[in-house]
Design goal:
Two copies of one chain form a homodimer. The radius of gyration of chain A is 17 Å and the shape is globular. Chain A has six helices and three strands. The mean pLDDT of chain A is about 90. Chain A has one domain: Arc Repressor Mutant, subunit A. In chain A, a hairpin with a 5-residue loop joins strand 2 and strand 3. With about 110 residues, the first copy, chain A, is an alpha+beta fold. At the A-B interface, helix 1, helix 2 and helix 6 of A face helix 1, helix 2 and helix 6 of B. Chain A binds a DNA duplex (30 and 30 nucleotides) through helix 3 and helix 4. Chains A, B: GO terms for molecular function: DNA binding. Chains A, B: Keywords: DNA-binding, Transcription, Transcription regulation. Chains A, B: This is Transcriptional regulator. Chains A, B: InterPro entries: ArsR-like_HTH, HTH_HxlR, WH-like_DNA-bd_sf, WH_DNA-bd_sf.
DNA sequence: TGGGTTACCCACCAAAAGGTAAGTACTATT
DNA sequence: AATAGTACTTACCTTTTGGTGGGTAACCCA
């Protein structure tokens, strides 16, 4: 255990809170897949949809809305017809990329 | 991006699979809290229950069963009355500890 | 005039996850 | 005889999560 992760009993509650929050942020069937797709470049709604085969539109819209609300993804609508909406992973969203990379390593053993 | 995480389009599908599996393994409202509690020492059922306030017995039993099934936790029953059952995090279970530590860092920003 | 394009919304449904409250088995203790 | 202690099980319920299949607006092009 690294020194800064040592904890007193007083810290345990907040540790639980933080872990629970983090789990909320990264969980869901598609959440990390979407973030991983956005890691390289800004994508339009339709591009994300095609990049995440199997996801329903309802869920995709909902996930994107949540990611924007959480401050992880920036959304830009161009006032065009047909509509053009672009989503990009911002700085806050990028903080979870190491989690994805670590899960890729850890997850291997569970396949 | 570290070199070993560079990926071709052929690898994308398996990457998705691995991420999905990892999410399955670590998600749920209480899963990581339980693992985190078991990080230091073997605990009896009742100790875990008291260590995770708020969890229902049904869910705790179910979670422990799953952790054993996933090969992350070892269970030992002593043939005593009143019963004594001990749970401990094994090597496979310990592979997710770095995920917890990383989530503690990342999660801070989302509180 | 009518279909194509894009990014959604809506009503409804099914499955999974989680919670509640009660009960069980077996023994020791009062 | 009744109670306490331990590690569960069971039936029932609510909430959350995800899926299905339709609809919409606005403009362009044929």
């Amino acid at each position: 255990m690294t020194p800064e992760l040592k904890q007193t009993s007083e810290q345990i509650i907040s540790t639980e809170l933080i872990i629970k929050k983090a789990v909320e942020v990264i969980c869901g069937k598609w959440r990390l897949i979407i973030i991983h797709l956005l890691r390289e470049k800004t994508l339009r709604y339709g591009e994300i949809k095609r990049g995440v085969p199997g996801i329903s539109e309802k869920v995709l819209v909902h996930e994107l809305k949540q990611l924007v609300e959480l401050g992880m993804v920036d959304k830009q609508s161009f006032g065009e017809v047909p509509p053009r909406v672009e989503y990009s992973l911002n700085e806050k969203g990028r903080t979870v990329l190491p989690v994805i990379d670590l899960l890729r390593e850890v997850g291997q053993a569970f396949i």
